[in-house]
Specification:
By secondary structure, this protein is of the alpha+beta class. It has helices at 27-35, 90-96, 134-145, 154-157, 178-184, 203-220, 222-227, 233-238, 255-265, 295-300, 310-323, 327-342, 355-366, 371-375, 379-386, 408-416, 429-433, 445-462, 477-488, 494-514, 541-555, and strands at residues 2-7, 12-17, 51-54, 69-74, 81-86, 101-105, 112-117, 120-125, 148-151, 165-167, 171-173, 187-193, 266-270, 280-285, 288-291, 530-532, 535-537. Helices cover 40% and strands 15% of the residues.
Length: 558
């Protein structure tokens, strides 16, 4: 596996082949193994913290779902394991350079960007780009160099802890704060431009697999193809697990107006390289055109803030993309302030549903002005600064759009996720929502979460898309083993893959333990009931503890 090292402090680069990384497949697995090269217990903004971009054996080929890229780092949100994935065209372009892993460390003396053209890596002056938003930055760099661009906006420059890295004006390395780590290194952007041909072991079998996968997509992902991720909003709301009014309620009576309006304003579809799903939806409302809003953005800047105005959500989405901020955490910190204001705990008078305040606060957060400077720290630190105790997070990362009180598998996966509250490490909400197990019972949840965590460690190492591997409707272990052999020529059994997936997951936990992060609990609010229609949802502490015990037993942890 080819690893390119960039030392920004010394302005030096080198490329090295590391055979030992092959065991970890690529992407997440290899990058996680390399993360241990960072010194223990350093601050996330220390120059020696690494940003590790990784592609895998599936990237660079024309196949639906095969255009994802992973990034691993120490998170400024949790002080532990950080990771994020991004779609678009960036993985395809990086793979064509011949670099499998890009390991960036150090800190530049002035703003810089990386220009990577096949084997040639140059550190270039970015003074003319510093202060510009992500859209402006990408336009300039694509005009100068073509290729594909990753960049930060003003939020990353200002070390907003949940800053993200933007690609193609709407694709993001979104969660856990890698944009802030990039800003701390004075690194504005990375440009990839490659022309190397990607070979596969069995091209004819790949053609057959592609045909099979395309039929699967047409049959199983028709809703995703037509409506994108907002398609799940009615289901989540009806189930009583749509986070509303900062986790005080589980459904939003005005959700239908958001969904109906969005369908009217979708102008066209957007796709990652080579993918026929085209789940991205370009929405235009008045003068705002944005990719999305995705489901997570609709919840975070919509129901969580008690806001039903789609125009405000779209505008907020656009600002977050330009500034480079994770919309999930952004919505959480704004709703958190609204809850504090409602209880009279802060001087700011910001009411739930105040659409003007949502836009105002996003601007203040990105530039760390006034209360925005506090909120830029994320909910955990903001609660400590404001001396309030209602911050909702796990390990320092705010939860996504599924209230775990009605989804026991999700509750467990929030606690066990190495990067903090996260729906993507196990996607446990899907088997819960479709009834594979009783969603309000601890029975069977640990086995599902453990299996899916291991499975997605392999998926993120290949690197492949979640939407093609969703529980009960997408590709699973046998399909992944078959595809891996077709592309690489290496035959690995399902048991081999399961063993490697478990070892990669163990590595993520080992990193957290090394850094002193071992918070596998849930915020107190989830042990208090919410009502939905005539039902009441709550996580019973004894059930949660039972799930954790079952999970530890299956993992072989003590």
């Amino acid at each position: 596996m080819n690893v390119a090292y960039v030392d920004l402090s010394k302005e030096k680069t080198k490329t090295k082949e590391i055979k030992e990384l092959d065991y970890f497949i690529g992407g997440k697995g290899a990058a996680t193994k390399l993360l241990f090269n960072t010194p223990p217990k350093i601050d996330a903004f220390h120059p020696e913290n690494a940003i590790i971009f990784g592609v895998g054996p599936l990237n660079g080929i024309k196949l639906s779902g095969a255009s994802r890229m992973t990034c691993v780092f120490k998170s400024p949100m949790t002080n532990g394991y950080g990771e994020s994935q991004c779609g678009g065209f960036i993985a395809h372009e990086m793979r064509k350079t011949g670099i499998d892993i890009l390991y960036i460390y150090g800190k530049a003396k002035k703003p810089v960007y990386l220009l990577i053209e096949n084997d040639n890596i140059r550190i270039k002056d970015a003074s003319h780009l510093w202060g510009k938003d992500a859209f402006e930055t990408e336009e300039i760099l694509k005009k100068d160099h073509k290729g594909e661009v990753l960049c930060i906006g003003q939020a990353g420059e200002n070390l907003v802890r949940f800053a993200c890295i933007t690609h193609r004006k709407g694709r993001q390395f979104g969660r856990a704060g890698v944009g802030a780590v990039m800003g701390s290194k004075m690194l504005k952007a990375v440009v990839f431009r490659g022309d190397k041909k990607i070979e596969v072991s069995e091209p004819e079998k790949l053609d057959e697999f592609r045909e099979w996968l395309d039929l699967l997509i047409k049959e199983k992902l028709a809703g995703m193809k037509k409506y994108g991720t907002p398609n799940i909003l009615p289901l989540v709301n009806e189930a009583g697990v749509l986070p509303t009014k900062y986790w005080q309620e589980g459904s939003f009576e005005k959700f239908e107006s958001i969904v109906d309006l969005m369908q009217k304003h979708v102008k066209r579809n957007s796709s990652c390289y080579g993918c026929i799903v085209a789940c991205g939806k370009i929405t235009k409302i008045d003068d705002v055109e944005v990719e999305g809003p995705e489901y997570e953005t609709l919840f975070a800047l919509g129901s969580l803030c008690y806001n039903d105005d789609l125009k405000t959500i779209a505008k907020a989405n656009d600002l977050c993309d330009r500034y480079g901020m994770d919309t999930i955490t952004t919505g959480n910190v704004i709703a958190f302030l609204m809850a504090c204001s409602e209880r009279g705990e802060v001087e700011e008078n910001v009411k739930f549903g105040d659409k003007d305040s949502i836009i105002d606060l996003i601007n203040k957060i990105a530039f760390r002005r006034e209360i925005g400077d506090v909120l830029a720290e994320g909910v955990k630190r903001a609660a400590e600064i404001l001396n309030v105790d209602n911050g909702v997070h796990v390990k320092g990362l705010e939860p996504p759009g599924y209230d775990p009180r009605g989804l026991y598998g999700t509750a467990l996966s929030y606690a066990t996720s190495p990067r903090g509250a996260c729906h993507m490490r196990a996607v446990a909400h899907r088997p819960n929502l479709v009834g594979i197990v009783d969603r309000t019972s601890p029975k069977g949840q640990a086995a599902i979460v453990k299996d899916l965590e291991d499975f997605y460690c392999i998926v993120d190492s290949l690197v492949f898309c979640r939407f093609l591997c969703l529980p009960s409707i997408g590709m699973y272990w046998n399909d992944i083993a078959n595809l891996y052999e077709i592309v690489t020529g290496v035959k690995l059994s399902v048991e081999d893959l399961k063993e490697r997936g478990a070892k990669i997951f163990d590595l993520t936990r080992d990193f957290n333990l090394r850094e002193g992060v071992k918070d596998e609990n849930l915020p107190p609010i989830f042990f208090k009931p919410i009502k939905h229609y005539k039902k009441e949802f709550v996580i019973r502490k004894e059930d949660f503890e039972q799930m954790l015990q079952d999970y530890y037993r299956l993992r072989g942890w003590t």
